[in-house]
Amino acid sequence: VFHIVQREVVLLVLLSASLIPLFIFTRSMAARNRSMNVGVAKAWYRLGQEQLEAKNTTQAIESFRNAATNDHDNTQYMLVLANALAETNHFDEARQILLRLRTSEPENGEVNLAVARLSVEDAEISDAIHYYHSALFGVWPPDQTAAQRTKVRTELIRFLLATGETSQALAELLILSSDIPDSKTAHNEIAQLFLNAGDSQHALEQFDRSLRLNGKDVDALNGAGEAMFNLADYHGARRYLAKAVANGSSSPEVKALLETAGFVISLDPLASGIRRNERIRRLLTDLDFASENLQSCIREKQGDQSSLAVLGPLWREMDEDRRVQLRPQELERDSERFTTGLSLIQRVQLATEEMCGRSSSLQRALLLIAGKHGIGEQ
Amino acid sequence: VINDNVLQRLRLREEQIFLALTIIIAVIAGLSAVLFTLAIQGTKHLLFGMSPSALHLLVAPTLVSLVTGVLLSKFFPEARGSGVPQTEAAFHLNEGKIRPVVPFGKFITGVLCVGSGHSMGREGPSVQIGAGLASAIGQWFGLSPSRVQNLVPVGAAAALAAAFNTPIAAVLFALEEIIGDMNAALIGSAVVASVTSVIVERSILGDEVLFRVPSYQLVHPAELLAYAFLGLIGGLISVVFCEALLRLRSFFLKMPSRTTVFQPAIGGLVVGGILVLVPQVMGVGYEYVDQALNGGMLLQTMLLLCAAKLAATIISYSSGNAGGIFAPSLYFGAMAGGVVGMLVHRLAPFPTAAPGAYALVGMGTLFAGIIRAPMTSVFMIFELTQDYQILVPLMIANMLSFAISKRFHKKPVYHALLEQNHVYLPGPESRSAGVWRAKNIMTRQADFIPERALIQDAWKAIAQTKSNTLLLGDWNHLVGIVTRKRLAEAVETGYASEPVGSIAIRQFEYLHADQPLELALERFGTDAEVLPILSRNGNRKLEGVITIESILQFIHKKPA
User: Fold this and answer.
1) Of B247, B306, B309, whose CA–CA distance to B275 is shortest?
2) Are A36 and B42 inside 8 Å of each other by CB?
């Protein structure tokens, strides 16, 4: 061959041919090295998880870091590292890692959720909402997609409620309510969120669904009672709340609500289906309570001229009205006087609450009675 | 029967062979760089596992260095240290010829040294391996000396591109550092080699990045002052590193030659001790650079790592192990930059970027200060970030660091390391074309006298010559020079029976054969009427002398 073809050409061909086995050898070495690194990374990851469970986050971070160094391509390692860093307030590094992950996997639901949480820490509201939405519409493991999306939306709603974005939270809640499993826990959770967002009607619907699954569920009874209370259905509220207490609810708030509902029902002079005598008795009882409350507040504020400047005229008005306008005979004669009486009670309650800062179930009930009949709105 | 004309047409010309070889060498250099990296990782894993004990950290580098000590002193003495200076010397002084066993020796010793925890880099050795393979293949093909020489930077660029994954910076490194001329005609071959090798590297390792570089931003214009401060600090650290490295290496070189085989193990023992205290300085250490870039380190940790890495690298390198200073300089830079970044972040009255941005600029700054390749440094960091915004702060910091380093150390560290081995690289003046050089004027006629000869004998000898100067020693080693005036004074003052060495001028002006005539005329007559011409590759090996007669003869013969 050397006689026919130039020596250099033969050498070039031989050298080029030798590149193929060399390339294959290097590739196989690289693959072997890669599998070794992946193995090492797995070991570090396991160690990190153990350290994390033992609440040793600082060492866990080092282990996760080693895992991520040995296996660059593993999103999971980077993600746990970023989460552990965020947990120990190393937000800068956590952000760098997550944003880089997001650049390489913009649709990864888990990554977007982690970035959203970091934005929550930074109080970056619009960024957080953006990343939560990206997480909602992101890619999740197929068997977890629905559950994860529910989890993310619930977290987003909690965040929106915490930042006062109630209308957005309600919009998300309505979507969530159409997509939740028919379970007691799910209904209760979403109902509570509706309640926190101020939508008692939807909250009641969800609590009712929960009660259909378990009529004795204390959380659902509590929630339904509160929702009814907010909707000014005090009979319904008392029914649910009493049932909750009977089923073991020991919450002081529930008991206070039950008591308040009871007062509203028993002290409302304008309630339907009661006789005039009863109406007069109720109003006079309400006035007695209000008067007592005002007197007690004035005693407390002796020497405080600015408070007395408000409370004094109210006391004089109360005294004069009870002697003239709000006598039983006058009430018997003119039913409009009931409104005047309730208005006076409302003003007294608001003033004492503002000056003396107390609000018992009874005081709250008196205000609710006035509110129920539109007093003050006029 | 094949027609002779057809055969003639099929024959390749040398430039075609050179082009084909450029691509083949790029592939081989790329593969060798990848294999080198993999072998280091494998060795490190084999020797240390996941959580090495203190004893392991102390013993492993020492024992491995005992083995590499034998290999480096008996079989591959050219494989000590980085490999970049040796490559430069081969390119400039030896027509690109490198012994074919050198790349293999460098591969083995480099893997063992860096893999056993020595604080050294893999880029320098990769450069020497790539250049060595290129030279060996060029010699095997029987290419002309100039072609063999030209293949050296081609192999170096390809290997560096694969080792560091920055093709543009690799080309610039070959031009700026190896060739020493940014306008070299080899730029085309270097680009082809660099790109080919990066393609090979990526086809094997994928798009894996060395560092997870944070997005860069200049938050406030006043930050440029902070970057200037970083340049200042980087320059000072570069000076400290180079000075300490050269002094400790000089100390090791002065030790008796029988200790040469054990010197790497001494370094291994000290480095092992450092690793017990600060294991993060082990080997290349890019994972910690990455951590500093991403704001994952405390100020105190970065300070400690910067100091410990400086110490470990100086000891590893100066004790004669095989490994580079390219990666360590990036390591110090990231740590120093991170520290400056954190201080600026805390103290500056204006908003600043995260410390990671300073760590990134710091990497380039220390590289510019230590390696003295500022353009390579700028493009290397630019390639890592792919962000135009970083250029201005980077250039400010780099240039300051480069200027400070140059102010305190006239010679770049690679050149100074070579000079410790009595190898003197030509400067830019030697490369300029179209000038007359010392070799055109020098003559081989010189009058020698042994160093131990007596002054009276030297006086008699000089009386018999026309020259006013005698050279002490011989052609292989010039000890010094002695003038007629000095001899006369010694004889008159009664020192005639003293050895002539006692009055010799030992630190004399000299030239290398490739230096220009202007320099010869400038230096001529400073010490004596003879200007020695020393070899660049040897311990005061004399190649000729310039005398008044030789100058006159040259003027007489020089064509108009």
Assistant:
1) B309
2) yes
Q: Which residue of A has its CA nearest to B41?
A: A33
Contact B447, B467 (CB under 8 A): yes
The contact set of B with A (CB < 8 A) is 2, 7, 10-12, 17, 20-21, 24, 27-28, 31, 34-35, 38, 41-42, 45, 50, 137, 140-142, 200, 204-205, 208-209, 212, 214-215, 287, 290-291, 294-296, 354, 356
* Sheet of B477-483, strand order: B448-449, B469-474, B477-483
Contact status, residue B175 vs residue B187, Cβ threshold 8 Å: yes
Place of tokens 């220009």: B516
CA A72 to CA A82: how far, in whole Å?
A: 14
Which among A178, A105, A176 has a CA at the least distance from the CA of A139? A105
C-beta atoms of B140 and A11 within 8 A: yes
**For residue B10, how many other CB atoms are within 10 A of its CB?**
12
Cβ separation B50–A26 shorter than 8 A? no
3-state SS assignment for residue B351: coil
Chain A residues 94-113 within an 8 A CB cutoff of chain B: 96-97, 99-100
Candidates A29, A93, A97; nearest CB to B35: A29
Number of inter-chain CB pairs under 8 A, A vs B: 85
d(CA B476, CA B293): 52
Q: What is the pLDDT along chain A (378 residues), one digit of tens a residue?
A: 455 567 788 888 999 999 999 999 999 999 999 999 999 999 999 999 999 999 899 999 999 999 988 888 888 999 999 999 988 888 888 888 888 888 888 889 989 999 999 898 888 888 999 999 999 988 998 888 888 888 899 999 999 999 988 888 999 889 888 878 888 888 999 999 999 989 999 999 999 999 999 888 889 999 999 999 999 889 999 999 999 989 888 888 889 999 999 998 988 888 888 888 888 899 899 899 999 888 888 888 888 888 888 888 888 988 888 887 888 887 778 878 888 888 989 998 899 888 888 678 888 898 888 888 888 754
Asked if the C-beta of A13 comes within 8 angstroms of chain B's C-beta atoms, the answer is: no
Tally of helices (H runs) and strands (E runs) in chain B = 24, 6
**Could you tell me the CA-to-CA distances from B46 to A45, A130, B273, B285, B558 in Å, in that order?**
20, 47, 20, 17, 66
Check CB contact under 8 Å for B294 and A27: no
Q: How far is A116 from chain B (nearest CA, A)?
A: 19
In this structure, what are the phi and psi dihedrals at residue B482, rounded to the nearest 5 degrees? -135, 135
Kindly identify which residue of chain B lies nearest to residue A86, measuring between CA atoms.
Answer: B296
CA proximity to B98, closest of B126, B131, B58, B75 = B131
Q: Work out the angle at residue B305's Cα, subtended by the Cα atoms of residues B300 and B309, and round it to the nearest 5 degrees.
A: 155
Minimal CA separation from A140 to chain B, in Å: 25
**What's the Cα-to-Cα distance from B306 to each of A306, B153, B241, B309, B338, rounded to whole Å?**
68, 32, 11, 5, 10
A42 — contact with chain B (CB < 8 Å)? no
Residue B453 three-state SS:
coil
What is the distance between the alpha carbons of residues B106 and B89, in angstroms, rounded to a whole number? 16
Cα distances (angstroms) measured from residue B530 to each of A76, B189, B344, B471? 74, 43, 57, 9
Chain A residue numbers with beta carbons less than 8 Å from the beta carbon of B142 are 7-8
Q: Count CB neighbours of B491 within 10 A.
A: 14
Q: Nearest Cα to B380, choosing from B434, B330, B316?
A: B330
Tell me the nearest-neighbour CA distance from A134 into chain B, angstroms.
Answer: 21
| Distance of alpha carbon B335 from alpha carbon A93, whole angstroms | 16
- Is A12 in Cβ contact with B17 (below 8 Å)? yes
Asked whether the beta carbons of B214 and B294 are under 8 A apart, the reply is yes
Instruction: Render A16-56 in DSSP notation, one character per residue.
Output: HHHHHHHHHHHHHHHHHHHHHHHHHHHHHHHHHHHHHHTT-
